[in-house]
Amino acid sequence: MVKNNPFFSKSFTDVWLSHFGHKHKTLEFESIYPVKFLRNRFRLYYYNVGKNITNGVSYVLSNNQNDCKGKVFLIYDVLPYLRERHNLTGDHPYLKLKKAPQYKGYLTDLSGFKNFDDFFLRHFSAKSRGNIRKWDKRLKLNFKVDFKVFYGEIELEVYNHVFDNLLILIQKRWDDLGMENDILKDHDYYHELCYNMILDKTATLNVLYANDEIVAISICFASNKELFFAITSFDIDFRKYNLGHLLIMYIMNWCFETGFDIFDYSKGTYEYKTRWSNKTYVFEDHILFDRNSIGSNLVGNYLVLFYRMKQFLRERNVNLLYSRIKYWIHTMKFKTKKDPKILIKDLDIVDDVITKSKQVDKDSDDYAKLKPIICDIIFTATQPFNTVKAYKVNDEKNKFILAGDDFIKEVVFESR
Question: Which residues contact 248 (CB under 8 A, 6 or more apart)?
Fold first, then answer.
């Protein structure tokens, strides 16, 4: 039912209020259950605890209560499929409801499938299944792979280590995009929130390891039957392995084993979401106001117009431009420096070159530059990652040799 939504849990409410509630007292109205509200600073309307950083909520209207007279309520990120699922679409004698569509959402309804293999066979074409299996097989051939789900218990030291790695992966990925990310800005909030919610089983921490190194992480929020894919990132050095797809696959398999009916990928359109989902929906901001109050009608209709205009601009990618401008302001530079040109060629004879070269330290900056190249090469010429040797050619600042079982390649980083 609605009250089992993770964003109504005590863990979520308490942590969110401690970071964003500004010590204001929460208010509850029997007309709208089980949402907790705060009053906006101009005292014109009430908004739900969590605002727009939940992954979707629902609510129940009570037709027997009139504590909503003369009031306006804004409930962010309502999930229409949950309201339909629990038959919560009825009207109210006092409150008028207007909706402002926002982000597109994606989910997989698992309820019609026996297990993961049944879903995989029926959802994907033979070609798509072959590609996904190839990515999975190559990753496991080249690396020692482990996947863990932390749900209900996790040692604080382990949690801190994983969360620190999550921030590193997000920073690396979004710097590459030249855009800001709100998770980094509010990392203290998410660090406290997710730990508490994992312990009370309203969140999961999903971690993919390659050679004992964390390469992909996601945090999901959980109700009794729905799992919400919320925060995720992966090591961009592993691009060819399509870790986004593999992470979805591993978590979905866990969903079947654990008894979840819905795997909701939440906001944002990414290729891996569109391919794994079997249903789409649209997040809605719900504005409810006293239909008999002139003041409530004015405020309510203003909010409807405002949030519909936000979505109009979002559909024209104004939000992406805004994110890039914020990134520039904070870093005081656009990403104008071009990455070096990478020249790779096969070598036939290498003994003389290697004898004049020095093996690259795996903790060095040089090795960090070579790592994505090695990952790409062994995706095709499969062999364990740790068995590939990297050498720096003497007296050559940006020239390297990569030696594998079946390949020898010269790599040159050429400035542009």
Answer: 229, 265, 272, 273, 276
| Alpha helices, H only, 339-394 | 351-355, 365-380
pLDDT at 229: 97
Quickly list DSSP for 210-241. Answer: ETTEEEEEEEEEE-SSEEEEEEEEE-GGGGGG
Contact status, residue 179 vs residue 320, Cβ threshold 8 Å: yes
Confidence of residue 396 (pLDDT cuts 50, 70, 90): confident
Report the alpha-carbon distance of residue 412 to residue 48 in Å, rounded.
Answer: 55
Q: How far is CA 232 from the centre of its chain?
A: 3
Per the listing, tokens 């870093």 go with 331
Distance CA 73, CA 300 (A): 8
At residue 136, the pLDDT reads 98
**pTM, rounded to two decimals:** 0.91
DSSP 69-133: TT-EEEEEEE-HHHHHHTT-----SSEEEEEEEEEEEEEEE-TT-SSHHHHHHHHS-HHHHHHHH
